[in-house]
Amino acid sequence: MNRFEKASIGAVALMLLAGAAIFFYAPTDWLQGPAQRIFYLHVSSAIAAYGCFAVVLLGGAIFLRTENYAADRWARAGALVGVVFTTVTLVMGMLWAKKVWGAFWVWDARLTSTLVLWIIYAGYLLVRRLSEPGRQSARLAAVVGIFGFVDVPVVHFSVTWWVTQHPGPVIVNDALPPQMLATFLFTMFCTLVLAAVMIAIRFRIETLMDAKQLIPGPVQVVIAREPGGVAGPVQ
Amino acid sequence: MNPFRVAIAVARKDLRSEWRTREMVPALAQFIVLALLIGNFAFQIDFRNAPSIAPGILWLVLVFAGLVAFGRTFAAEREQSSLEAMLMTPASPVAIFAGKALAASALLILCEAVLLPALSLFFGTPFSADVVIAVLLATVGMAALGCLFAAIVARVRARELLLPLLTLPLWIPFIVAGGQAVQSAMGLPGRYDEAVGLLIDFDILFVVLTSLAARFVLDE
């Protein structure tokens, strides 16, 4: 078993523990009922998605400055995992909203900006898929990633004059009973571990794919075949 | 080389080639009239609901006309491979980008000169200075972003597919604030000053950001 398999098993075990905490340890909310249990994974995966997109931003910025291809691979890995966690956030939120608000979707600042976030990074992944892999693609995608990160707070800010329906921050307001808070913090920790493991695995996949396509070599010089030697690219 | 003169020269070159071929503006003007026609049949518009529907039609038409306009920004350069030649000159890529953005926004403003009168002609909505100011302010930032992403997708396969996907989410702040401004200028409830202030903020933010990013997109 290699270290990635061990890490995956660890992350899945932690998520199962978090699930047990959500369903058996945390008390049922007296107002919202069992639907409130969606909150733990919903908020945790939103935070994990923000973390992933911060990786995209940092990776893109570092790549633009240093042309370090490892930074670009981190960005790619972060974008993919971030889109997965944003999808989880949106789907969980919609299920909760149907139960509590009576509608799957309302055009509220938080929901709109999360949807825009999802679209932007799905677009980032499409840019990566549709452009020829290499320096150009990495630079263009870095610009998309940076603009995406800027746009989301702007969208959020521009729609805040619409009355917001989304619940406010309950953690910083000290509105959670201790058992719920403990469950939430534990779920968030497990989700962040899962996100980190997923990014690390994806980074490894991207590295292998790049190695297959000879991406990281900025200068490829094929030297003349030496007698008896094996010709090959020399960096 | 003075970057302002470079930008003006690039913009003049683009506008002159548009003037000589006269491809884009007539096509876009026709597109706008057709879109208004579709708007008329897709909604049940009468004099009572026109003020609440017309702003939406305005932004939908403007956004899609803008996508077509910006998608063509780098088409000529790509077909003739002249972008590389332009970038080989000592002129800074940012100045070249600014020139292309200026020309593209001039074309979009020409389209708006068709769209806004046609809108008030067909739907009877007020054609006031407030509406024009809001649309022009939104055009500045939309042109900067649209041009940047047109430059990005110019080097990508399936660019027609990708340009709307990348540009539309980044235009949403302009559509939110511009929509609000036009709605209140057409007599719906809303704060016009606040929306125009936001538009100016977004213009400054995105013009600065795109000029910082243009170097990485065009530099080769």
Structural account:
The complex is a heterodimer of chains A (235) and B (220). With 235 residues, chain A is mainly alpha-helical. Chain A has one domain (3-234): Four Helix Bundle (Hemerythrin (Met), subunit A) (Up-down Bundle), CATH 1.20.120. Chain A has 6 helices and 2 strands; from the N terminus they run H-H-H-H-H-H-E-E. In chain A, strands 1-2 form a two-stranded antiparallel sheet. In chain A, helix 2 (38-66) packs parallel to helix 6 and helix 3 runs antiparallel to helix 6. Chain B is an all-alpha fold and 220 residues long. Chain B has one domain (3-218). Chain B contains 9 helices and no strands. Chain B has helices at 3-21, 24-42, 50-71, 75-80, 82-88, 93-123, 129-153, 159-185, 192-218. In chain B, helix 6 (93-123) packs across helix 7, helix 6 runs antiparallel to helix 9 (192-218) and helix 8 runs antiparallel to helix 9 (192-218). Chain B is globular and about 55 Å long. The mean pLDDT of chain B is 88.
Overall CATH architecture of chain A: Up-down Bundle
- In CATH, the topology of chain A is named Four Helix Bundle (Hemerythrin (Met), subunit A)
Count up the domains of chain A.
1
Tally of individual helices of chain A: 6
Strand content of chain B: under 5%
Q: pLDDT under 50 segments of chain A (min length 5)?
A: none
Let me know the average pLDDT of chain B: 88
Q: Note the overall shape of chain B.
A: globular
Order of helices and strands of chain B: HHHHHHHHH
Give the total of beta strands of chain A: 2
Major interchain interface with per-chain residue totals: A-B, 30 and 30 residues
Give me the oligomer status. Answer: heterodimer
Give the averaged pLDDT of chain A, no decimals: 84
Helix content of chain A: over 70%
Helix proportion of chain B: over 70%
Strand order of the largest sheet of chain A: 1-2
